[in-house]
Amino acid sequence: MAASIIDGKLVANLIKERVKEDIQNWMSKGNRAPKLQVVLVGDNPASYSYVKSKTTDCIEVGIDSETLQLPDTISDRELREIIEGFNKDDSIDGILVQLPIPDHIPPQAIIESIDHRKDVDGFHPMNVGRMQVGQPCFRPCTPAGIMELFNHYSIPTKGKHVVVVGASQIVGTPTAMLLSREKDGGKSTVTLCHRYTKDLTKHTINADILVVAVGSPGLITGQMVKEDVVIIDVGINRVADHENERGYKIVGDVDYKSVSEKASWITPVPGGVGPMTRAMLMKNTLLAAKKSLYP
Ligand code: GUN
């Protein structure tokens, strides 16, 4: 039987609608609109397109946003000074530096230069650490969005075997953490696979829920999963497509055709996890404006 679709676009729209109402309510009490400051370094076309979608979402929900575009020649120090300025600016609630940044700038130093109270990406060690110990914090947007999808579709995670493929700092590792955690978490048994995992299929074939976030088009095929698996495909890959007027199409890390024949639920790409990441960013920016997490 064909898999049911986990419609991230639909769920993201519901979340954005709620955020929009909350913002209207917040502003009706005399508060200004929340403001997100985005920093884009260099001219990576994919990053440019993600930032554009994020700022479109801001307009939709009533968040002010500004994007500072910087040349890829900027130094580590100059970038940190700019961020320092945003940290001190009371008119800015959330700061987002779109990743990846050019190789000569260490990303961790940039992440740590952002005031954790404005870290709407949830990447600062203060937020990462507080999430681990179950304290109020900004949750990273993609893992938080994935948890919302399970919640919306009432897909049980308690006691399930979740296999996460990809141990990145911003998706795989925090997703594994949230899913395994008891308090406000998935209560799942989690296997975290990465580039050094031997015999990936040995793990994926046992997954009740498979989360894939590696950036490798079509990595997971139908033969690698069991019947009725739930598939969360985080991959957003541009592959050449001469029939498409842009010259490329977007595909996930999962071979949709063969996997959807076996899965019970699956996220499409595009229209699955991507819109959820952006919706959670809107939610985090509102939380930052309200100072709900760090009063
Ligand atoms: N690059 C890819 N995903 C993300 C994200 O969620 N936040 C930022 N800042 N950069 C990214």
Descriptive keywords:
295 residues; alpha/beta; binds guanine; three-stranded parallel beta sheet; 2 domains; Rossmann fold; six-stranded parallel beta sheet; globular
Nutshell version of this structure?
The chain is an alpha/beta fold. The chain is built from ten helices and eleven strands.
State the total count of DSSP E strands: 11
Report the CATH superfamily of the largest domain.
NAD(P)-binding Rossmann-like Domain
CATH architecture assignment of the largest domain: 3-Layer(aba) Sandwich
Q: How many whole angstroms does the radius of gyration measure?
A: 19 Å
Oligomer category: single chain
Helix/strand-derived category reads: alpha/beta
Unreliable sequence segments: none
Helix content: 25-40%
Which CATH class of the largest domain is shown? Alpha Beta
